[in-house]
Design a protein that fits this description.
This protein is of the alpha+beta class and about 300 residues long. A five-stranded antiparallel beta sheet has the order 1-2-3-5-4, with helices on one face. Strands 7-10-13-8-9 form a five-stranded antiparallel beta sheet, with no helix packed on it. The protein has a three-stranded antiparallel beta sheet with strand order 6-11-12.
Length: about 300
C-alpha cells in the first residue's frame, strides 16, 4: 500500500474564488480556484510576482492563468507560516501590538512606494489599468439602498463634504493598493510577533496611498497599534498629507459604503452598515470610533 496521502480543506476568506489548504506527500500548499472571476487568476499571479521579495507573499508553485467557470484557472502557492493576525492581537500585550503596528506601517510604506499612472482595476497579466467607471462619491452614495431616512441622508452628505475637503489637502499620486489590508488577511509568527504573510489580493488595484490605511483603521479600536503604524508612516519620507487618519477614512468611504449596502450578507457587512449609520448620526468620519491619532 502506498504511503502517499492527499487532502484539501476549504479556507475562509476570498469572495472571488474558492480557496483550499492542500496537502500531498507531506507538502502543504494553498490552492485557489477562480470560479467567479476567471480573468483574475492572471492578475493575481502578476501581482504576486511584482511584490515578491518586497512584501511577505507566497511563492507560486503552479498556475493555470486561463480557463472558464466550468474549467477554472487556479493558483497553487506555498502555505505561509503563522497564525491569523486578528486572533493573535486579541491576546497580545502592548509591546507586541506596538511591534506589529510598526511592521504594518512598513508594509503600508512599501505599498505606497509602488507607483502607477492611473486609478483603476488591473485587467490582465500585464497589470494594465482599466479606469474606474463610477462618478462622484455623493452620486455613488445616493444610488445605494442603505435604508436611511432623510436625517441620515443629510448627515452622511455632511460626512462626504468633509471627506472631499480633507482629500483636497492630501497627495494626488497613485500606487499599488491591496484594498483588503486588515488583520484577517495577515499572518504573524506568535513566538516573535513577526508578520509572515499578506494574503488575498483579489481586490488589489491602482489607487490612493491612503486607502489601505483606511481599511486597516476601519474597525480598529487599538491606539497602541495605530500609534505605531502612524509613527512609521509619518517618518517614512512619503510626504503624505494630514490629518492622516481622516485621509485614510475618507479614501475608505467607497469600499465601506459598498460593503454596508450588503449588510444582510454577513456580519462584516452588517458591522459596516452600523458604522456608516453612526457616521450619519454624528456627521463625522470618526462615527464615534476610538481616537487613534495619538502621534502628531
Amino acid at each position: 500500500m502506498s504511503d502517499f496521502a492527499a487532502s484539501a480543506v476549504p479556507l475562509a476568506g476570498g469572495y472571488g474564488g474558492q480557496t483550499y489548504a492542500v496537502s500531498a506527500g507531506g507538502e502543504d500548499a494553498v490552492l485557489k480556484l477562480y470560479v467567479k472571476d476567471p480573468g483574475r487568476a492572471a492578475v493575481d499571479a502578476a501581482l504576486l510576482r511584482l511584490v515578491h521579495g518586497l512584501l511577505p507573499v507566497p511563492r507560486i508553485l503552479d498556475a493555470k492563468r486561463e480557463g472558464s467557470p466550468d474549467d477554472p484557472p487556479y493558483l497553487l502557492t506555498e502555505r505561509l507560516p503563522g497564525v491569523n493576525l486578528q486572533v493573535y492581537l486579541d491576546a497580545a500585550g502592548d509591546e507586541d501590538r506596538r511591534r506589529v503596528g510598526e511592521q504594518l506601517g512598513e508594509l503600508l510604506v512599501r505599498l505606497s512606494g509602488m507607483p502607477f499612472l492611473t486609478f483603476g482595476m488591473f485587467r490582465d497579466g500585464e497589470l494594465a489599468v482599466e479606469p474606474f467607471g463610477f462618478g462622484d462619491l455623493e452620486g455613488f452614495f445616493e444610488g445605494l439602498d442603505l435604508g436611511f431616512d432623510q436625517k441620515h441622508q443629510e448627515g452622511f452628505r455632511d460626512v462626504i463634504r468633509y471627506a472631499e475637503d480633507v482629500q483636497a489637502e492630501g497627495v494626488d499620486r497613485v500606487c499599488l493598493v491591496h484594498s483588503d489590508f486588515n488583520p484577517k488577511n495577515l499572518l504573524v509568527d506568535p513566538a516573535t510577533a513577526r508578520i509572515t504573510g499578506l494574503i488575498d489580493w483579489e481586490f488589489a488595484h491602482a489607487g490612493s496611498p491612503y486607502t489601505d490605511l483606511g481599511n486597516l483603521f476601519r474597525f480598529c479600536d487599538d491606539p497602541v497599534l495605530a500609534g505605531a503604524v502612524l509613527s512609521v508612516v509619518r517618518g517614512s519620507g512619503l510626504e503624505l498629507g494630514e490629518p492622516l487618519v481622516d485621509l485614510g477614512r475618507a479614501a475608505d468611504l467607497w469600499a465601506l459604503l459598498e460593503l454596508a449596502s450588503r449588510s444582510a450578507e454577513h456580519e462584516i457587512a452588517a458591522a459596516a452598515h452600523a458604522l456608516v449609520s453612526r457616521m450619519a448620526d454624528t456627521g463625522t468620519l470618526a462615527g464615534g470610533r476610538v481616537a487613534l491619532d495619538v502621534v502628531h
